[in-house]
Design a protein that fits this description.
Elements (H helix, E strand, L loop, with lengths): L2 E9 L8 E11 L2 E6 L14 E4 L34
Antiparallel strand pairs: 1-2, 1-4, 2-3
Length: 90
């Protein structure tokens, strides 16, 4: 049996208590092996690291995760009214 996962990365948003989870691709587990397909390139954090997490695909197209490692995540939509820092330093 093949399991499907979403490959996601947490993004901290100023003024928000919990991170927004961005989907960067998909992963499949079959016969004990995992294959990953990235559909976008994640940006490193302030320490220059990229940490990706695999969450079992629930079949929902749009989602955001609010807690790292939660076995039963509560899905909440990204709030479009959130103020983002659009300043580009160049």
């Amino acid at each position: 049996m093949t399991k499907r996962f979403n490959v996601s990365k947490a993004k901290d948003i100023p003024g928000r208590d919990k991170p927004v989870w961005l989907k960067h691709g998909i992963a499949f587990e079959k016969d004990g092996k995992i294959r990953i397909k990235l559909e976008s390139l994640p940006i490193p954090n302030k320490d220059g690291e990229i940490w990706l997490s695999l969450f079992e695909d629930t079949g929902r197209e749009n989602y955001s995760r609010t807690e790292v490692g939660s076995a039963d995540p509560s899905h909440e939509p990204f709030n479009a009214n959130t103020t983002l820092n659009d300043d580009i330093p160049f």
